[in-house]
Amino acid sequence: MPDPEGQAELFPIPSPPPGSEVINDRCMLRTENGRRMVIVSGIVLAHYAAGDRIAEAHARVTLVEQGWADQNDVARVFGCCARTVRREQRRFDDGGMAALGPADGY
After folding, report:
1. Confidence (pTM)
2. CA 90 → CA 57, 65, 87, 99, distances in Å?
3. Is the pLDDT of residue 94 over 80?
4. Which of 6, 26, 46, 94 could be cross-linked to 59 through a Cys-Cys bond (beta carbons 3.0 to 4.6 Å apart)?
5. What is the largest CA-CA distance in the chain?
6. Helix (H) or strand (E) holding 103
7. How confident is residue 49, by pLDDT bands cut at 50, 70 and 90?
8. Taken in order 57, 62, 63, 64, is the CA torsion positive or negative?
């Protein structure tokens, strides 16, 4: 926002790139060309196809378990509730990545 004297702001706040959602001040979720990246402090933590539900659940669990983000922030950006993230954490602890997939049966 320019000041009354017409000077541009010296340190403008950068906006996230298109297709990006900010999880918190360290983490971002970026979707581009049918792929998703979870970026933490500029490093790609997870990279997967946009429809891959198991990889997405693993990315949510990893963000929370490693302390990069809290359950509420992760749930908000990924479009689920914090209860879902907690349930995925419990399943992952009990059975690893295989437990994040759909349950057997009808």
Report:
1. 0.81
2. 12, 11, 5, 9
3. yes
4. 46
5. 69
6. none
7. very high
8. positive
Supply 54's token pair.
């198991």
At 48, phi and psi to the nearest 5?
Answer: -160, 165
Number of Cβ atoms within 10 Å of the Cβ of 31: 13
User: How far from each other are the two terminal CA atoms of the chain, in whole angstroms?
Assistant: 57
Is residue 27's pLDDT more than 80?
yes
Per residue in 2-25, pLDDT tens?
A: 555 666 677 777 777 788 899 999
- Three-state SS at 102: coil
* Mean pLDDT for the chain overall: 89
Distance, CA of 45 to CA of 62 (rounded, Å): 9
CA 10 to chain CA mean position, Å: 30
Contacts of 50 (CB under 8 A, 6+ apart): 31, 34, 35, 36
| Contact between 48 and 55 (Cβ < 8 Å) | yes
